[in-house]
Amino acid sequence: MGINWSDFFAPVWLSVKIAVITSILVFILATFAAKLMAGRKFPGYSLVETVMLLPLVLPPTVVGFVLLVILGRRSWIGRLYEQLTEQTILFTWGAAVIAAVVVAFPLVYRTVKAGFEGVEKDLEDAARAQGASELQVLRFVTLPLAGRSLAAGYVLGFARGLGEFGATIMVAGNIPGRTQTVPTAIYVAVDGGDMTMAWMWVCSIIAISAVMLMFVNKRSR
Description:
The protein has 221 residues and is an all-alpha fold. Helices cover 78% and strands 0% of the residues. It is built from eleven helices and no strands. It has helices at residues 5-37, 45-57, 60-71, 76-85, 93-117, 121-129, 134-145, 147-163, 166-171, 182-191, 195-220. α1 packs parallel to α5 and α10 runs antiparallel to α11. The longest helix is centred in the first third of the chain and has 33 residues, at 5-37. It is globular and about 65 Å long. The termini are far apart. The relative contact order is 0.16.
C-alpha cells in the first residue's frame, strides 16, 4: 500500500505550527514572570510560584481536564468566547496551543529564572550608575548575560509544544486534518498497527527537534 503523503504531512505541519506559536507565547509569558520573580521575595511568593510550577508535577491529563472545565461551554470563558466568535474553544488547534502553553510554562519559567538569577547584580548596578535606564540595563546587560538560559528556555518551550499529548488530546481531541498532531497521530497509527506511518512520524519529530536544537546551540555560542 502506498503512502498517503497528505495524511502524513497534515499532522506534521499542524504540530510545527502549534510548536512555533506555543514557543513564542510561553517564552514571552515565562520571561516576564521570571523577571518579576527572580531575586525577589514578597508575601505569598511561595504560593504564587507553586501555582506557576504546578503543571510541571501534575499528569498532563489532569491539566487537560482542568482546561476542559475552564474552557468548556459551561464556563464563563467558554460562553464569552462563543458569543464573540460563534465558535467553541475546545476541539480546535487553538485549544492545543493553550494546552501546550500551560504545560510548557513551568519548564521555561524555571530555566529563564535561573538565568536571570545568575546575572551578577554588580554589573546591573554599574550600568545604572553610568546612567542607564532599567530598559537599557535589561536590553544590554541582563538579557545578553542570561542569553544561554533564554535560548534553552525557548527550546524547551518549542519541544514541549511539539511533543505535547495528554493535555492536548483532552481539549483538542484527535480530529484528522484539524487537531491531529504528530504525537496523537503516532498513537493512533500504533494502535491501528500501521508501523510504517508511525515510524515516519517518529522520524519527522526527531528531525525537527534535532534541527531546532542545533540551530539554537549555534546561535548561543
